[in-house]
Amino acid sequence: MMAAQHPDVRAWLAVAVGGIAGSELRYSALVAWPEGHGFPWTTLGINLIGSFVLAFLTTWWLRRPHIPFWVRAGLGPGVLGSFTTFSSVAIAAVTLGKDQLAVAVVYLAVSLVLGLGTAAAGWFLGARVGRRPSASRRGAPTPLDAARGNGAER
Description:
Largest sheet: none
Strand content: under 5%
Radius of gyration: 21 Å
Structural class: mainly alpha
Low-confidence stretches: 142-146
Number of strands: 0
Shape: globular
Helix content: over 70%
Mean pLDDT: 86
């Protein structure tokens, strides 16, 4: 049985620095567009953007395994993990629910449905952008095609 590999110090530092950056992005958005006591549009927007970007990057990275782990960790759990937080959704819903229960329920439903929708859109776009047309479709085999034995015999 192989021992589990642990991330190196670069990944830990990337998550820490990314966490600072994501937190500052969130704070800057909330300063620029304060929510007050109404519908939490800024929190919703932050979480929808984050859902889209994380899904896009995750799909894109699946097609590019050469992207270093520390970069993926810094952007995923680091920047986007601190930029988007479920705790903000929960606090906004509880705050709304004190005086406007129906609005709180709508907010939770909208957050869930649009969050899943933007994540699906990000996943779809990441897969499309991540797809590289192989040179073999253009007539010449790529090094990967040759290594696989596809098109190298031409």
